[in-house]
Structures are given as structure tokens and as C-alpha cells.
Amino acid sequence: MSIIVRKANEPDCQGILDLITELAVYEKMEEQVNMKVETLREDGFGEEKYFQCFVAENQENDSSKLIGYVLYYYIYSTWEGKCIYMEDLYVSPAYRGRGIGSRLMGSVCKVAVEKKCARVHFAVLAWNKSSIDYYKRQGAVNLTETEDWHLFRLVGSAIDKMAAKADV
Questions:
Q1: Catalytic: 135?
Q2: Which of 53, 117, 134, 141 is the residue whose CA sits 20 to 30 A from 47?
Q3: Which of 73, 85, 134, 135 is catalytic?
Q4: Residue % of the chain over a pLDDT of 70
């Protein structure tokens, strides 16, 4: 068995979607996944790219299977400049504990260093203690504990309502 981490490419989209669904089941939120392969293709590999992705691939004999991924995109801090938001970091349960997650996250952090990004942001569900502990061991700071930040989201009609107030 050989596990490689590499930049995702368009043919990986179905495997990435399978892993996104697997993550949603793990997070007990599978009913919220509305993603389609076509959307991943367009948003990640189309003319305007909205995300980047690395995948972990298990290569055995003449076959290969995606077993993990990290999906990220660029954001901007008015205080510090360029940053990365790591949307998902996931490794299938059968492959955990082998350093694959660290290799995936390390790939994103390497991009952050190369692009001179000031921060790598991400969110973790409060009940996911093993992930919280992992990230803290990697040197991450829990902003809820240290700075009392809370994460908010607008969706659907709330976006429409705010958009109607725009002047431009």
C-alpha cells in the first residue's frame, strides 16, 4: 500500500464528493449536503477557481482510491493581509492515525508559507474533541476560548434580504 498526497484534479471530483458526504455523515449533518459533482468541477477547475484541494490517494496494485482531502481557499484579513481558510480536512476512518491528516494540512500550510499568508483559519464542531485536541497539538489557537469570537452565517432568504439593501 502506498499513500500519496497530491493536488486534486478535475477527474477527482466524484471521489472528493464521496469524501464530503462521508464527512457530513461523520459530523451528523448529511442532510445539509447539496453539492453536485458538476458544481465541484466548475468551482474548482473552471475558469474562475473558488477553491483549491489536495487529496490523499491509496495506490494498491493497479487501482487507486481517494481516502482523504483538504479543501481550502483564500480570504483576506484587514489587519494582516492574505490568509487561507481551510474548509474541510478529512481522512476516512480506516486510514486515520497514519499521519495522513498532517500531510494534508501540511500541504495547505506549505501553500500559506509560499504565498506569504498570515493565517490559516478553520472551524471545528464543539463536540469533536479529538479534532480540537489534534489542532491544538499542531499549534492552533481556539479563538472561541482566547478572543470570544463566534461564527455566523447568512443563507437563502437572509442573503436575498441583505442584497436588496445594496446600492451597487
A1: yes
A2: 117
A3: 135
A4: 100
